[in-house]
């Protein structure tokens, strides 16, 4: 019998660093590799971790997520939604507290703004084998101050964890995947807000360490992408398309396709060069343009444009724009001719 039967996914945040693309959708619904970020995460949990019982914590523009995934049946999942009210307590710990009554055994926690190429099943197996209270997926990072930072001994036992330190005690950081025993809720309920006004999950983990319980770090090889900025959308798109390959769901006319690309349904592509690593959302129209390393959301018109390493929102109308690293929000209209 599988020991870890449920996954908790936190998808309630505003995504303020991803403006203007999160003005009309939660960041977890931004498309990369032809699907919303959150869908990639859910399918990973289903296919790699073999877990289909999902507790999904939602908040900002929750209806967008709930309407898309429903009860999860169409995705081979059983999803129960927990709402984190945006005027309530802030922080990962506050979000996790909301699911306490739904948890009776060890569970996974997955932060929905992360995508993984690593085999996280090995993290779960390590947790079970060591009978740990907490197991953290970790990696080495050149800028650890952005993350929760851990210190470990030679046996991968965590001796200290601190949130976003100005002077990091190591370069080992928590990614966005954890395995917990239900004991974590005892320590979550002891927390007070941090100096930045949030209930920090790392503070609860530190309390577990200080109680003498087993907290482990598990470093598994494979890519991981934290999606916090527009450039991360492009990086995630390239990671995923490298795995998925080319998907074309619309007719093209007199176009050069440089793989890999994703072209959604109902698109009209004419006299253009598309790719590599270009994602075109459904219903978009691309005419006499060159697009590479670029993500275009649904129902946009791109005419006589040359775009590289760019993110273009939904329902945009662009004509004559020639730019590297363009960031164009939904409903924008730009005419450079």
Short description:
The protein has 337 residues and is α/β, with parallel strands linked by helices. It has two domains: 6-230, Alpha-Beta Complex (Spore Coat Polysaccharide Biosynthesis Protein SpsA, Chain A); 247-335, UDP N-Acetylglucosamine Acyltransferase, domain 1 (3 Solenoid), CATH 2.160.10. 19% of the residues lie in helices and 32% in strands.
Based on the coordinates given, report the CATH architecture of the largest domain.
Alpha-Beta Complex
The counted number of beta strands is 30
**Number of helices, where a helix is a run of at least 4 consecutive DSSP H or I residues:** 7
Query: Main sheet?
Result: 7 strands, mixed
Structural class: alpha/beta
Under CATH, the topology of the largest domain can be stated as Spore Coat Polysaccharide Biosynthesis Protein SpsA, Chain A
Helix-residue proportion: 10-25%
Strand content: 25-35%
Number of domains: 2
- CATH level 1 class label of the largest domain: Alpha Beta
Head-to-tail CA distance between termini: 64 Å
Stretches with pLDDT under 50, minimum 5 residues: none
Strand order of the largest sheet: 5-4-1-6-11-8-12
CATH superfamily of the largest domain: Spore Coat Polysaccharide Biosynthesis Protein SpsA, Chain A
Rounded to the nearest angstrom, the radius of gyration is 21 Å
Average of the residue pLDDT scores: 94
């Amino acid at each position: 019998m599988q020991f870890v039967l449920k996954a908790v996914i936190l998808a309630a945040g505003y995504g303020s660093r991803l403006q203007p693309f999160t003005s009309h959708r939660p960041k977890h619904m931004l498309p990369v590799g032809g699907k919303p970020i959150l869908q990639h995460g859910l399918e990973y949990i289903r296919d790699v971790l073999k877990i289909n019982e999902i507790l999904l914590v939602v908040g900002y523009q929750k209806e967008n997520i709930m309407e898309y995934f429903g009860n999860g049946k169409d995705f081979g999942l059983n999803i129960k939604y927990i709402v984190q009210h945006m005027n309530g307590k802030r922080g990962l710990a506050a979000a996790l507290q909301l699911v306490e009554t739904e948890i009776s055994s060890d569970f996974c926690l997955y932060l929905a703004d992360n995508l993984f190429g690593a085999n996280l099943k090995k993290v779960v197996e390590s947790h079970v084998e060591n009978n740990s209270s907490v197991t953290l997926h970790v990696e080495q990072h050149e800028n650890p101050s952005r993350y929760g930072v851990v210190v470990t001994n030679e046996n991968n036992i965590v001796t200290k964890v601190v949130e976003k330190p100005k002077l990091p005690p190591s370069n080992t950081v928590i990614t966005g995947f954890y395995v917990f025993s239900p004991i974590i809720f005892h320590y979550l309920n002891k927390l007070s807000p941090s100096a930045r006004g949030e209930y920090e999950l790392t503070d609860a983990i530190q309390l577990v360490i200080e109680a003498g319980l087993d907290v482990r770090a598990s470093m598994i090889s494979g890519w991981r992408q934290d999606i916090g900025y527009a450039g991360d959308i492009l990086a995630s798109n390239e990671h995923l398309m490298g795995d998925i390959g080319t998907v074309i769901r619309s007719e093209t006319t007199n176009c050069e396709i440089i793989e890999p690309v994703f072209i959604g349904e109902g698109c009209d592509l004419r006299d253009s060069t598309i790719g590599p690593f270009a994602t075109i959302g459904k219903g978009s129209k691309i005419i006499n343009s060159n697009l590479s390393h670029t993500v275009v959301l649904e129902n946009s018109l791109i005419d006589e444009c040359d775009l590289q390493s760019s993110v273009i929102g939904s329902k945009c109308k662009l004509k004559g724009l020639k730019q590297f690293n363009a960031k164009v929000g939904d409903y924008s209209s730009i005419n450079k001719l």
